[in-house]
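Handout, tutorial session.
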Amino acid sequence: MKEDSAIGNRRLPLSRGPPGGTIGVMRIFKGESECPTLPGAVMTLGIFDGVHLGHRDVLRQTGVWAQELDAPRGVITFAQHPRQVIDGRAPDLLTTLQHRLVLFARAGIDWAWVLEFTRELSELSAEAFARRYLVGRLRIRGLLLGFDSRFGHDRLGVDSPELPVLAQRCGFALRTVPPILAPDGQPISSTRIREAIQDGRLKEAEALLGRRVSVYGRVAHGAALGRRLGYATANLDLGREVRPPFGVYATIAELEGRSYGSITNVGYRPTVAKIEPGEKPDLMIETHLFDFSGDLYDRELEVHFVEKLRDERRFPDVATLAAQIRHDEARARAILKAAGL
């Protein structure tokens, strides 16, 4: 996949950094016991679900400010969506935690601190949070927030006159970033992108993300049905990450910094899956990488959706299915070649 250079993204291996580890050059700290010691850092704060164009502008401007001060640039994010803890109604995510961390690293962030969003943390006021974490633990020099950022149980945000006063009282500088607008003049939001992906409006979602719609997960063991058809597939465990509607797609699979043309099936595999009456089948994301040989189990894969080829459907037998897959592969290869991928 060609790299989007609009904000100076860097090509990085898509490998998991262990707790206290790294992704590319970005250090990862997990939990309060692994709090980074980076006095004078410039940082930003949030879930950043999807790491869309608006989020990426926040990350970019965090980097610009840090460069002005010759300071490290960092992100505080949370392992859980706050709504999961507050009311148990968190939406499905555009990006799981690990996917977010990969995208932070691509955006040039030096370090990321992942906090557990607990009930206790949710009850802290904005000032208590700032004094405990931003000042007491991190000793930051500057905090940069997006136009709709809020934190603390009192939901203190950039539209509140109290926030600059809090920053001054705690001893750090504060900057805010205006929204990035969609073509219709409305601010870009994770909710809008989530709805577009679920409805299959991938080009619309792509324009708001500033990158192709992608899913990220660890390759899990499957029933090896694809291998018996001559098309070995990687079965992705996505957790609660949003995925496009059922169907077969031309895709780019990214594995440890290398890109492979691929086809991806999203659905229930009705031709080969054995589904008992009344049983709810498992939703599967299966990707066949072109011109790849090797073991993918337990490795992490990012799949970028380029174009939908067809709906998922049941075939009369596996021979007909195999013939259709060969046709799908030929179409996908042509689409990817025409797109220069």
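The second record follows below. Compare its token runs with those of the first.
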Amino acid sequence: MISQNSKDRSILENVVQALVRESSVRSRQPPEVILTGLAAMPKTVTLPHIVDHQQEVHTLPIPRSPAPTTHLGTKIDTVRNTARNSTARNSHVPPNQQNHLIKRQLETIEKQFTIARSQNKPVLSNEAWIPNELRMKTLGRDITAASDALLIIKKREISMAREMRRLDVTDLQRAQTEEGLGATHKLPCECCMQEFLYVNLPLRVSRKAIVDIRTKWSGKLSSATVFGGPDAIAEEEFNSDGTMRSTSPSKARSALEKKSALLSGVPSCYDEVSVCIFCAQFFHVQEDYRPSYLAITQNEKRAAAKEARRREKEYWDPLKMVEKDRKEQELRDQMTLSMQMQEEGAMETTEV
């Protein structure tokens, strides 16, 4: 391509100047070409490259899912710049054909943006017709109701935690706390007369049962006293070692015996009293603390037969008989000596 007034320059200089002018966008203008010399000779010309519409569209960087907030004009400007750059790269295509391709690309892009905008259009709910002020009031009521419900749940959790702490405390710990606060005090066990808290007094029995078990433990329960008869008359019996003992009732009674005798009367003997855990084990079986008359007589007969066998065996043993006679003689000597001392003391008192 040779421009005007270029006859004084060589062909190479003209070609370089033409390339520089074509590379500049601002200085580009339709040149007036005059073919002279070698340029006027016929030469082979290649046909322009036919660009497929779909291929050209896919070569452009088109976003598949554009953001709804982006304006379409900005996208079109971007595509135009991209198309201009592509046109500069494909400078071998004629300008009319390039403009036509760019127009087709822009139309396709606008269609795609229209479809994308319709797909990304926000779907309104059924409550879209409600005014914002009414919505805010409804939201405020919901928040207030949720706050009240949360407060009720917290109170219920606190009450449940307090109830669980109360249930975890044992009865003994609760009684000890009440005793420390002065709400309760220790009570005596009517059997062993020891003081305990009310949780350690689980069983209630009649006072008659306590009197009966004390009578049995004392060894005074017999067929003569089982029905509350008079005490046996004074008699002499032998101990297990062969010595004699006096069974005459003593006139001196302790305060406990007097209290037991007072409480064992008919009106008050059937009052229920509390006993401790240890003493409660003696009242599980009635025959253990209140045997029947038949059981008492059988026990007496069994004890009498056992004592008779022991005496018979002892009678036929000379060593035991000699030992028994010696102990009886010592006991008689002691009694005689004590009586003599009492008589001498009485005589001295009379002389004075």
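Points raised in discussion: The beta strands are 187-188, 195-196, 203-206, 236-238, 244-246, 272-275.
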